[in-house]
Specification:
- It is built from six helices and two strands; from the N terminus they run H-H-E-E-H-H-H-H.
- It has about 140 residues and is mostly helical.
- About 5% of the residues are buried.
- The protein has helices spanning about 5, 10-25, 55-85, 90-100, 105-115, 115-139; strands at about 35-40, 45-55.
- The two termini are about 15 Å apart.
């Protein structure tokens, strides 16, 4: 697990909420109304006629895209949550939860667990370095 992936967690959670909201309101308003021109041959020669209606194919494509993206983001978030919950050291697990899940600053985390900011930063960095080495050894 990389630091970048952990730091992207909150953004992914917010994107999931946004995508679900978009999905819920898909097709509302005039955004999915489209127009086209067809030729009417009833008079014997082509007469252009405007056709206006809901673009159901576009709604289906967007719905599929949003649902797929939500599933991908939820899977990534679940991996991050599992990684943090599997940390055996209670203090480090608390630090990771507060910093990466709750979005607290390192200073605020340090105040909550009675450490200074630099020790919190070192604990995060050291754990990620060791976890990275462990992952490489397992491969």
């Amino acid at each position: 697990m990389t630091r970048e992936k952990l730091e992207a967690y909150r953004s992914m959670k917010e994107e999931i909420t946004e995508m679900k909201n978009r999905l819920r309101h898909l097709g509302e308003g005039d955004s999915m109304i489209g127009s086209s021109v067809v030729n009417d041959y009833r008079s014997g020669y082509p007469v252009p006629q405007a056709v206006v209606g809901v673009d159901w194919a576009r709604i289906d494509r967007l719905k599929t895209r949003y649902e797929r993206r939500i599933l991908e983001l939820e899977k990534e978030c679940a991996e991050i949550e599992e990684f943090i919950e599997d940390i055996s050291d209670s203090m480090i697990r608390r630090i990771f939860r507060m910093y990466f899940f709750d979005g607290m600053s390192q200073k605020a985390v340090g105040t909550a667990i009675h450490m200074d900011r630099s020790r919190v930063s070192r604990k995060i960095d050291d754990f990620l370095k060791n976890a990275h080495k462990t992952q490489k050894a397992q491969l």
